[in-house]
Design a protein that fits this description.
The protein has 1 helix and no strands. By secondary structure, it is mainly alpha-helical. It comes from Psychrobacillus vulpis.
Length: 41
């Protein structure tokens, strides 16, 4: 069962920035929607 969970996270597509569409260099399951360039926080 644990193997299925690991495979699920391993197979998630890379997250893309909502503004520019570039891949986000962080964990795919995080809550951020913007890359470092577009993040204004």
């Amino acid at each position: 069962m644990l193997e299925n969970v690991i495979e699920f996270f391993r197979n998630l597509p890379k997250k893309k920035c909502d503004k520019c569409g570039e891949p986000i260099e962080e964990q795919h399951e995080c809550y951020g929607n913007h890359c470092d360039k577009c993040n204004t926080l």
